[in-house]
Amino acid sequence: MTDVPQTGASTLTERVAGAVRAEMARAQMTQRELAAVIGVQQPNVSLRLQGKHPFSTVELDKIAAALGVPVERFVIDATPAGAA
Fold it and tell me: Which residues contact 42 (CB under 8 A, 6 or more apart)?
């Protein structure tokens, strides 16, 4: 088995979660507030923010509206450097 070095968030789910966390921090939004926005329990928000469960496109749309940012920010900010 080949060891692949882990350099930060490696999956799209993890990178999107990081972008959502960054926007939440800028807006000083809590996980509880985010849970209310997307209509799930706070523990489910925690799993999404850890990158263990993906956000749905509907959830990302609601988050973007609540934070006043374009939904594309979560995907564009989640694109690895040098990717086309």
Answer: 31, 32, 35
